[in-house]
C-alpha cells in the first residue's frame, strides 16, 4: 500500500459513522463536542452522541461537509480497488459484483462469468434457431456473449395466460461502452412469420420479468397444430455499433 493509499484509508476510517460503520454522508450530524454520526442514524431516533453521550448540535460543519463531498468512495465489492466520487454508478456496473450463472450453481465476480460460460455452456448467437413446442408452460435460458459481455436470453411460455416472452438480462463485467441496445426477433412457424423490434436501456439492478423483453400472445398460433414447432432468431446491436454502421453507408 502506497503512502497515498494509507492516507486515504486513514481518512476513510476517520470519516466512518461510529453507529452503522458506513461512510459519513455529506450532511453529518455533530454533537457539541464535535463527534460526527451519519444523518441516517439520527433519523432512526438516535438522540445523543454514542461516543460522549452529549446532545447533538444543530449547527452545520461546512468544512467537514466540503471534505465529504470532495472525497472519492472506495468500491465496496471485494477485489475492486476503484475510488469514485459517484460510487453508486461505479458499483452498478462493477466487474467485481457477485453474480450467479443461470445455467448451473456457479457464482462469482461478474468479470469471471464470461470465462465460465465459454468453458461450460453452449452459447446462443444471432444465427442459431431456438425451437420449441407450445404444449406446456416452460422457462429456458440461453447464454450469449456479444460486445465482450454476457447476456442471459430467457424464454418463457405461459399456457394459462397465453403468453410467450423473450427476455434479455445483461451481466456487465466492468467494461461498459454502451448501455442502450436494439433487440430484433424473427419468429417463424409453418403458418406464419413475425418480426419484432424493441430498444433496450439496461439496468443491471432490475431483472424483473417484464423488463427488456418482447412478448407474443399465443393466439398468433391459432392456425397451427399443437404438435407444430416454432422457432426464433434474435439479433442484438448496440447504439454505438449502429451509429458506426450508418456512417459507413
Automatic annotation (TrEMBL):
Cross-referenced InterPro entries: SINA-like_animal (IPR004162), Znf_RING (IPR001841), Znf_RING/FYVE/PHD (IPR013083)
Protein name per Swiss-Prot or TrEMBL: RING-type domain-containing protein
Record's GO cellular component terms: cytoplasm
Record's keyword terms, sorted: Metal-binding, Zinc, Zinc-finger
One Pfam family linked to the record: Sina_ZnF
Gene Ontology terms, MF aspect: ubiquitin conjugating enzyme binding; ubiquitin protein ligase activity; zinc ion binding
A Gene Ontology biological process term: proteasome-mediated ubiquitin-dependent protein catabolic process
PROSITE patterns listed in its UniProt record: ZF_RING_2
Residue ranges of domain RING-type in the record: 17-53
Amino acid at each position: 500500500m502506497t503512502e497515498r493509499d494509507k492516507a486515504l484509508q486513514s481518512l476513510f476510517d476517520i470519516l466512518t459513522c461510529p453507529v452503522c460503520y458506513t461512510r459519513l454522508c455529506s450532511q453529518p450530524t455533530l454533537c457539541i463536542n464535535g463527534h460526527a454520526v451519519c444523518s441516517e442514524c439520527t433519523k432512526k431516533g438516535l438522540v445523543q452522541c454514542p461516543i460522549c453521550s452529549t446532545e447533538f448540535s444543530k449547527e452545520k460543519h461546512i468544512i467537514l461537509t466540503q471534505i465529504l463531498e470532495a472525497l472519492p468512495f472506495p468500491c465496496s465489492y471485494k477485489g475492486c480497488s476503484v475510488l469514485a466520487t459517484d460510487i453508486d454508478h461505479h458499483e452498478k456496473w462493477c466487474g467485481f459484483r457477485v453474480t450467479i450463472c443461470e445455467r448451473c450453481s456457479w457464482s462469482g465476480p461478474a468479470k469471471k462469468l464470461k470465462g465460465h460460460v465459454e468453458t461450460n455452456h453452449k452459447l446462443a448467437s444471432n444465427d442459431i434457431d431456438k425451437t420449441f413446442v407450445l404444449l406446456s408452460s416452460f422457462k429456458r435460458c440461453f447464454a450469449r456473449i456479444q460486445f465482450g459481455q454476457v447476456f442471459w436470453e430467457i424464454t418463457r411460455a405461459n399456457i394459462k395466460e397465453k403468453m410467450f416472452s423473450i427476455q434479455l438480462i445483461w451481466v456487465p463485467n466492468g467494461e461498459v461502452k454502451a448501455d442502450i441496445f436494439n433487440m430484433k426477433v424473427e419468429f417463424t412457424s409453418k403458418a406464419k412469420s413475425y418480426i419484432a423490434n424493441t430498444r433496450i436501456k439496461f439496468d443491471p439492478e432490475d431483472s424483473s420479468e417484464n423488463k427488456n423483453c418482447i412478448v407474443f400472445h399465443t393466439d398468433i398460433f391459432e392456425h397451427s397444430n399443437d404438435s407444430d414447432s416454432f422457432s426464433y432468431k434474435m439479433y442484438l446491436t448496440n447504439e454505438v455499433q449502429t451509429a458506426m454502421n450508418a456512417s459507413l453507408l
